[in-house]
Design goal:
The protein has one domain. Helices cover about 80% and strands about 0% of the residues. It is elongated. It starts with a helix and ends in a 9-residue tail after the last helix. The model has no long low-confidence stretch (mean pLDDT about 85).
Length: about 140
């Protein structure tokens, strides 16, 4: 039986964010003049925001997905899922990172773009792997 409902979301988000926190801290630290403490604090903010955004975005995506006639998660649907999540994340994190790391918006955009490219691939691969281990959510499963 596939993992479903709130339990699925908690396992998904918790596992995803634990890995993302480490990657985010290293990413912010490596591209800024800030210390690991400031980079880590920004990664904590990013993780907390990502958790709330992840729950919200996945609920909206699954609602949209449930209304589709074609079931399953094709390559295109997975790309759409990952891209939508990362765009929403970028809109919030770009100004916060610029302010917190005391860098220009252009540099923040470049930092966030690099992280988003990484996380786009990470989100795609993580979701695919998660679905392989725990099965598809009810919104994507064949009736």
């Amino acid at each position: 039986m596939a993992l479903q409902g709130i339990k699925r979301k908690i396992v998904y988000v918790g596992t995803y964010e634990a890995i993302a926190f480490v990657c985010g801290t290293l990413g912010f630290f490596s591209v800024s003049d800030s210390g690991v403490e400031r980079a880590g604090a920004l990664a904590i903010f990013a993780s907390l925001f990502a958790v709330s955004w992840n729950f919200t975005y996945n609920a909206l995506f699954e609602r949209w997905e449930a209304g589709r006639q074609t079931r399953g998660r094709s390559f295109g649907r997975r790309v759409l899922h990952a891209l939508g999540f990362e765009i929403g994340f970028l809109v919030v994190l770009l100004p916060v990172a610029a302010w917190w790391l005391e860098i220009s918006y252009l540099r923040s955009f470049m930092v966030n773009l690099g992280l988003n490219i990484f996380f786009f691939g990470y989100t795609f691969a993580f979701t695919w792997g998660f679905d392989r281990v725990f099965g598809l959510p009810a919104s994507a499963a064949a009736p």
